[in-house]
């Protein structure tokens, strides 16, 4: 069976309202169970029958038979989710198949990478979250926003959730773990000339991270890839800066003011040095051509203290 056929068959199983309602009923019944360390109790046939509007038990039996294997597992005591069932039912319950509600226009401070403007505007553009610069009228940064995320929050609280989600996800990417599917990610460093030419942008290199399973791609300036790693997050945290709660449109300030820089320092092997500066301290990271950390070094620029890992 081709991968396309297998996927089409799996999703065809859901083209029936009763089956979707069965998955919802199992999830809601699990949610209503008393808290337990032992995980969820399977839901019995009769419990499902009580919760789902189907004509008779043989109809329910038929639908459960269809769902079992792909979305449900059958045990002695009843039914529980497979991995795919658990993933799809969260998507269904969160109603993330709908359009996100309009978030309006949210004024936010940050830095336009192109012109340096610090008062920016966040809004949705074709369902995607975008921060735009009103001065040069360009998108400064963008990210995915889920309908559930937009429904649960607004204004500054919504921006907080976006910053933190993007920060945590980009952190996972740096550990070569795909935030979408947990598959393996490959990374490569590219000079800005190899990609879409950007005028007047203080970035010499970008990283592209690709998931070999779901093909999701993440890209960012090389200093961002270095910054969202444990050594850098800890470096800033110790100095009162919560990098994981800092939006990309806020981090662009570090590129424009020269606090975060990157340069190619070796060709055999190819190596890049990223320097992240904070007051009188620097964190220097050396990355290889696959954007893996080769070594890090903390330098106190005034006293000359230095420690390497
Ligand atoms: Zn601008
Ligand atoms: Zn993936």
Automatic annotation (TrEMBL):
<dbReference type="Pfam" id="PF24038">
    <property type="entry name" value="DUF7347"/>
</dbReference>
<feature type="domain" description="DUF7347">
    <location>
        <begin position="8"/>
        <end position="92"/>
    </location>
</feature>
<dbReference type="InterPro" id="IPR055771">
    <property type="entry name" value="DUF7347"/>
</dbReference>
<dbReference type="InterPro" id="IPR055775">
    <property type="entry name" value="DUF7351"/>
</dbReference>
<dbReference type="Pfam" id="PF24042">
    <property type="entry name" value="DUF7351"/>
</dbReference>
<protein>
    <submittedName>
        <fullName>ArsR family transcriptional regulator</fullName>
    </submittedName>
</protein>
<feature type="domain" description="DUF7351">
    <location>
        <begin position="110"/>
        <end position="291"/>
    </location>
</feature>
């Amino acid at each position: 069976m081709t991968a396309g056929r297998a996927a089409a068959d799996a999703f065809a199983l859901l083209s029936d309202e009763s089956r979707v309602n069965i998955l919802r009923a199992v999830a809601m019944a699990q949610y209503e169970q008393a808290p337990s360390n032992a995980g969820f109790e399977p839901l019995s046939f009769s419990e499902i029958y009580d919760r789902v509007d189907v004509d008779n038990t043989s109809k329910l039996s038929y639908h459960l038979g269809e769902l079992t294997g792909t979305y449900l597992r059958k045990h002695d005591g009843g039914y529980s989710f497979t991995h795919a069932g658990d993933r799809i039912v969260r998507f269904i319950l969160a109603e993330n198949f709908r359009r996100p509600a309009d978030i309006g226009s949210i004024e936010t401070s940050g830095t336009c990478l192109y012109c340096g403007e610090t008062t920016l505007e966040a809004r949705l553009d074709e369902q995607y979250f975008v921060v735009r610069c009103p001065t040069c009228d360009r998108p400064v940064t963008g990210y995915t926003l889920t309908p559930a995320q937009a429904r649960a929050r607004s204004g500054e609280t919504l921006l907080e959730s976006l910053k933190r989600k993007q920060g945590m996800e980009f952190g996972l990417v740096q550990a070569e773990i795909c935030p979408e599917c947990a598959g393996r990610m490959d990374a490569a460093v590219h000079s800005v000339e190899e990609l879409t030419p950007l005028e007047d942008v203080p970035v010499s290199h970008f990283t592209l991270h690709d998931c070999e399973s779901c093909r999701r791609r993440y890209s960012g300036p090389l200093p961002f890839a270095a910054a969202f790693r444990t050594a850098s997050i800890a470096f800033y945290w110790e100095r009162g800066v919560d990098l994981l709660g800092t939006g990309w449109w806020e981090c662009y300030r570090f590129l424009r003011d020269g606090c975060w820089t990157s340069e190619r320092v070796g060709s055999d092997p190819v190596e890049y040095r990223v320097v992240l500066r904070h007051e009188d301290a620097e964190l220097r990271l050396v990355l290889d051509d696959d954007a893996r950390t080769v070594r890090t070094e903390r330098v106190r620029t005034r006293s000359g203290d230095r420690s390497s890992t």
